[in-house]
């Protein structure tokens, strides 16, 4: 073998293996959630049929889906109420958390003064506050919105504070060297650096806001999916109970997928959005 062939073989041995094409990877990422959900429900259906489980204990997913399809208006009406309560609670928690975290990130005194209040809020079961909110605001949407906001507030404020503090020191020094104001440092450095943390918190807080809205509806509502689940439990309406659970899960999945799409658009510059 000649020296040229030897060098060619050695160079070929050092080359990395060819990666999966970009489009194939994207297609797999799109299919993965549907494959996971399909496998989960298929295993559930198979277990109930083979184990001969009573419908009162665990119904078939197919029968639950059939019940939802047969009653679309019922679940649309009540689901819309729960979505509105969770939506406003989510954004209330977000803006309150950003304001508090901003003050804490700029002042150690404010952080030390605010931290015990945050710990107190975190340690208090939010569900026990629902009757208090009912006394304050009556039978209005506000008790449910505030319950949803309290559920989502702690993850938001913790991640916002971490993000606002996790800045690149070299960039910070550069901005200070050109006499950038605190406001400019905040908008040009702290806010962009905190976005990955806020999006991570938002994925969790979507579900928490829905949970808070449903718990509020348990105590104070004649509508919403929390109320439909409560009524179904008291009357042993198994299909309605599981139908409420399925619709809530579907709402959560839809909102998380929308959030992921927004995150990819906003954070396309960040390493977390790189395809592996």
Alpha-carbon Rg, integer: 25 Å
Number of strands: 0
**Number of helices, where a helix is a run of at least 4 consecutive DSSP H or I residues:** 11
Distance between the termini: 39 Å
DSSP strand (E) fraction? under 5%
Category from helices, strands and their pairing: mainly alpha
Question: What helical percentage do the residues reach?
Answer: over 70%
Low-confidence stretches: none
Characterization of the model:
80% of the residues lie in helices and 0% in strands. The chain has 276 residues and is mainly alpha-helical. The longest helix has 38 residues, at 182-219.
Topology:
Layout: H1 3-14, H2 22-51, H3 61-70, H4 72-106, H5 108-123, H6 130-137, H7 142-165, H8 169-177, H9 182-219, H10 225-235, H11 238-266
Question: Could you give a quick summary of the protein structure above?
Answer:
By secondary structure, this protein is mainly alpha-helical.
Keywords:
276 residues; 11 helices; mainly alpha
